[in-house]
Specification:
The chain has 289 residues and is an alpha/beta fold. The protein has eleven helices and eleven strands. The strands form two sheets. It has an eight-stranded mixed β-sheet with strand order 1-2-3-4-5-7-9-11, with helices on both faces. A three-stranded parallel β-sheet has the order 6-8-10, covered by helices on one side. Helix 1 crosses helix 2, helix 2 runs parallel beside helix 3 and helix 3 crosses helix 10. The N and C termini lie far apart (49 Å). The structure holds ligand LLH4SW3U. This is Enoyl-CoA delta isomerase 1, mitochondrial. Pathway: Lipid metabolism; fatty acid beta-oxidation.
Length: 289
């Protein structure tokens, strides 16, 4: 119920944005920040993140992404989604720092609800989610990948993935942490989260953050072949199994969703945290100069 209500709010927000859907022979639809190549006959869609320059998860991006995902969820012909970046090199730079810096509490609350919604929708999706990680994927970008059923990363040592929040002076919330612990185990998570480590593909593979590392030009074809393997499993048994594995963790967030929002708002509003974000943003700018 809570999920459905929040979904309606996002859909309303989406229509307020007034984005016109572009339909190309019923095989492709796009809003400004997400491109969907939908092969209805095959039952597979490729969702490409396209929020330049670095696919940060801004409120507008989250709204558009959730609307696209819901369209696919509502069409029973779609059984699988491949998530990837339209801009190879960066899968996603994670949460949009500008949504968490210098704004008011109401904005922080709205933003955090949308972040929660993204995680819940992806984590509990009935569809098969394969992540084709064709670039760097820190923090919220890594979290998106962690919700998927299978992760394939491009073998480029320049790319990294992990939950680096502590390096920014912020803290990964409990549900980021739970998702990470369930993927890599407690000790690895404890170590990596405290240090805010980002891992190149080979290390990410060793730790189980990703399931496969393949040459960069094969990420997409590999994702398609993995998807074919997963599609061979009957939906009902796979979905019931997925739900059995994931429901308790998702319910843990659902039951304390409002408290988690309040927690985020008071944490992110602190002067000391705003100062840390300011310093980090300055560092990002200086890197350029
Ligand atoms: C105890 C109670 C706890 C409760 C706490 C609750 C919650 C708090 C935790 C909240 C969780 C947050 C999770 C996150 O996702 S935080 C975001 C983490 N992301 C990063 O650290 C990535 C930062 N970016 C980079 O490292 C690089 O940009 C890059 C992704 C490696 C790409 O590098 P490059 O291609 O060289 O691009 P630039 O660095 O030049 O960036 C271009 C442009 O984009 C801006 N930018 C980059 N990342 C972000 C971002 N995440 N959000 C907003 N903007 C971003 C960057 O500043 C440049 O802007 P300008 O062109 O204007 O200079």
């Amino acid at each position: 119920m809570a999920l459905a209500a929040a979904g309606r709010v996002l859909l309303q927000a989406g229509s307020r944005l007034g984005r016109r859907e572009v339909v190309d022979g019923a095989r492709r639809f796009a809003n400004k920040r997400v491109e969907v190549e939908a092969d209805e006959a095959a039952g597979i869609a490729v969702m490409k993140l396209k929020n330049p320059p670095v696919n940060s998860l801004s409120l507008e991006f989250l709204t558009e992404f959730l609307i696209s995902l819901e369209k696919l969820e509502n069409n029973k012909n779609f059984r699988g989604v491949i998530l990837t970046s339209e801009r190879p090199g960066v899968f996603s730079a994670g949460l949009d720092l500008m949504e968490m810096y210098g704004r008011n509490p109401a904005h922080y609350a709205e933003y955090w609800r949308a972040v929660q919604e993204l995680w819940l929708r992806l984590y509990l999706s009935n569809m098969i989610l394969v992540c084709a990680i064709n670039g760097t994927s820190p923090a919220g970008g890594c979290l998106m990948a962690l919700t998927c059923d299978h992760r394939i990363m491009a073998d480029n040592p320049k790319y990294t993935i992990g939950l680096n929040e502590s390096q920014l002076g912020i803290v990964a919330p409990f549900w980021f942490k739970d998702n990470f612990v369930n993927t890599v185990g407690y000790r690895t998570a404890e170590h990596a989260l405290q240090l805010g480590l980002l891992f190149p593909p080979a290390e990410a593979l060793k730790l189980g953050i990703v399931d496969e590392v393949v040459p960069e030009d094969q990420v997409h074809s590999k994702a398609q072949s993995v998807m074919a393997q997963w599609m061979a499993i009957p939906d009902h048994s796979r979905q019931l199994t997925k739900n059995m594995m994931r429901k308790a963790m998702a319910d843990n967030l659902i039951k304390q969703r409002e408290a988690d929002i309040q927690n985020f708002v008071s944490f992110i509003s602190r002067d000391s945290i705003q100062k840390s974000l300011h310093t980090y943003l300055e560092k990002l700018k200086q890197k350029k100069g």
